[in-house]
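Throughout our pipeline, every protein is held as a single compact record rather than as scattered files. Nothing more is needed to write down the fold, since each code stands for a local backbone conformation. For reference, a complete record is included directly beneath this paragraph.
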Amino acid sequence: MKITVICTRHQEIGNCNSYELYKIFESLRPDLIFEEIPPSYFDKYYTDMELKSLETTAIHSYSNSNNIKHILVDSDDIPPESFFNNYYSLLRRIEGMTDVNGFNYRNFIDNNRILIATQGFFYLNSDYSIRVNDEICDAIEKGLGKICNDELNQTNQLWKDTNDRRENEMLNNIYEYSKIHKYDNAIFTIGIGHRKSLMNKVISFNEKSSIDINWAFLTFN
């Protein structure tokens, strides 16, 4: 069993769009797709069509034309809206800083957006995208150190802990599914912010699991 991780973005911008993702699906020809969406949201995305994202638009088209399954593996333990509002408020504080941390944050955020729009999935699935994301996180951490606000520090830690838990649950769900169901060539679509962490975690999960999954992270020559 092979799973190729495709790092993506939930909203379309420039060359990062559902058609380009669909073309990647066509090139890889998966017989199964794992998605970074909670199972309870299936109807909202695929039956009632109340919600849509870059990934779901591409997956909907590909799964219909190729008659394959797509499995939602994210955690159903969804944080309240206040959780996201608090974190976005934290980012605005960092963005508004007039020191080097605020400058670095704004600079790397802008560069990241430009590269996503111009290079699309080529950039999102590169080592350079990891380095840019590391620089953004570093600016946040150093900015928080300068602000010295316990509430903001707690918000940031909760954000990191929540994403760590979600990644572990997604991988657990993939391994549990793989114990019961057979497939040859699967895809896992997930946001770019998880790429570096997943590269480390899949090694640990394979060592502990009774099944061996051949993990590959999409890259372009």
